[in-house]
Each structure stands twice: as structure tokens, then as C-alpha cells.
Design goal:
Length: 249
């Protein structure tokens, strides 16, 4: 859900839509988190429901017909894939808080990367991407970008995210959505010459504002909170018993 559908979906969709637009669509992930936690039996409060309504209004404004980021109409297939990828990432994040994972966060992260990378390799092979690979035509800039993603995007960022998602409420972990869209839109404009529009700016403000409204809601407005173990749950039977005993105390 995280690496195959989440990351893979965004990478595929960015061949059809600008990177800044993709980042803004990914920003709806915290909204999906709230909905999924709600489906697990933890209803949100009035402030969170209001934030959900505003956030999806911003999403509709962003992808509705007309001129948007990139100077043309939105590719609806690409936009839909990004929104679905955000849903998958949110589902994986919520599931990870209850899944029987190894005690070691680094081991858990490594297993997820190996599994996700293997699935992406199979998906790329099945769709014929090897036929489009041109190593001879790869520039130094591309290699540097790949190295940056490996070190900072995978080893550093994903390891930190995997630890956080097991120790912090999903809605709080998703606060990174404040920053990512703004940075991505500015970098897209600066490095890829992606034009900005007034509607994109308004939609971005609405979506990011809704995310901030939700994730900063007081505990009383967020509905009852699920009781999660303070430490990552062990994948063993004994680990689950210890975690259950701690919760009962």
C-alpha cells in the first residue's frame, strides 16, 4: 500500500500531470487518514468533519475543468491515480499501527523497502519499462537525483516515517502535508518551469488549511482516540500479550 501503490502510483501519474499538482493532490492524505480511522470506529468531532468538507472542496477546485497548474486542463486519469495513491498510503499508515511488525524499526523499514521494491520491479517489468530504459542517455543530473532520493527520500525519510507511524497518531504523523505541497509547487516552478495560476494558489491554500485545521484540532474535537501501545508491538505472540497487558493497565 505504501511503496507499490502509494509511491508507484505517484511516479506513474507524474508522467501525465505536473509535479506540483501531484504534491497538492497527495496533500489530501490526512483527510483519508481521518476517514479510515473513522471507519475503524473512532468518529471525528465537528471541527474535523468541517475540515474534511473544506479539504475535499479544495480538491474539487483543484481538479475541476479549467486552467490549472501547468497551463492546461487536468489529466483526470493522472489526478485520480494520485488521489488513489494517497488513499493507499493512508491505509498503509493506519494499518501499520496495528500490524504485527518486528521490534526493530530499522528491520521493519528494510523489510518494507525490499518487499515494495520487489513489487515495483515486477510491476515495471510487466509494463515493459525495461524496453524504455536508456542508461547511455542518462545524465549526471539524473544520477544525482536518483542518489538524493535513495539517501534522503528512502533511507532517511521513510525510516523516520515508519518509526513515527508506529508511535504517533496517524493524523499527527500526516502533518508533513503542511510543507510538502508548498515546497513541491515552488520547486516545480523554479526547476521545471511549471507555471502557477490563481486557482492553483487558492486550491492549495484551501487544502493545506483544511489539513492544518484537522491535525491541530483539540483532542475533544477529534473524537475518542484509539489506545495504542507506547512501544512498537512485537510480531510474536508474547509481544502481543505484553502490549495488551500494558493497555489494560
Amino acid at each position: 500500500m505504501l511503496l507499490l501503490i502509494g509511491n508507484g502510483g505517484v511516479v506513474w501519474a507524474e508522467q501525465r500531470i505536473p509535479s506540483g499538482l501531484a504534491a497538492l493532490l497527495v496533500a489530501v492524505e490526512p483527510l483519508w487518514v481521518v476517514i479510515l480511522v473513522w471507519a475503524r470506529g473512532t468518529p471525528p468531532g465537528g471541527r474535523v468533519l468541517a475540515g474534511l468538507a473544506v479539504g475535499f472542496a479544495g480538491l474539487f477546485l483543484l481538479i475541476s475543468p479549467g486552467e490549472v497548474l501547468g497551463g492546461g486542463a487536468v489529466d483526470m486519469v493522472g489526478a485520480a491515480v494520485v488521489v488513489f495513491a494517497a488513499l493507499a498510503w493512508a491505509a498503509g499508515s493506519v494499518y501499520a499501527q496495528h500490524a504485527p511488525l518486528p521490534d526493530s524499526p530499522l528491520l521493519s523499514t528494510g523489510m518494507q523497502m525490499l518487499a515494495g521494491g520487489s513489487l515495483l520491479l515486477l510491476a515495471g517489468t510487466a509494463t515493459g519499462e525495461w524496453n524504455r530504459l536508456d542508461l547511455a542517455g542518462t545524465t549526471l543530473r539524473s544520477w544525482l537525483a536518483l542518489g538524493y532520493l535513495i539517501v534522503f527520500g528512502a533511507l532517511v525519510a521513510f525510516s523516520a516515517y515508519s518509526w513515527l507511524v508506529r508511535n504517533v497518531e496517524p493524523s499527527k504523523v500526516a502533518t508533513y502535508a503542511y510543507v510538502n505541497p508548498v515546497v513541491a509547487v515552488l520547486l516545480g516552478w523554479l526547476l521545471a518551469s511549471e507555471p502557477l495560476s490563481v486557482r492553483t494558489g487558492v486550491a492549495a491554500a484551501v487544502i493545506v488549511g483544511a489539513v492544518a485545521f484537522i491535525t491541530t484540532a483539540p483532542r475533544s474535537d477529534s473524537g475518542p482516540q484509539p489506545q495504542l501501545p507506547a512501544q512498537p508491538a512485537s510480531g510474536s505472540r508474547r509481544g502481543w500479550k505484553v502490549a495488551s497487558a500494558r493497555r489494560s493497565r
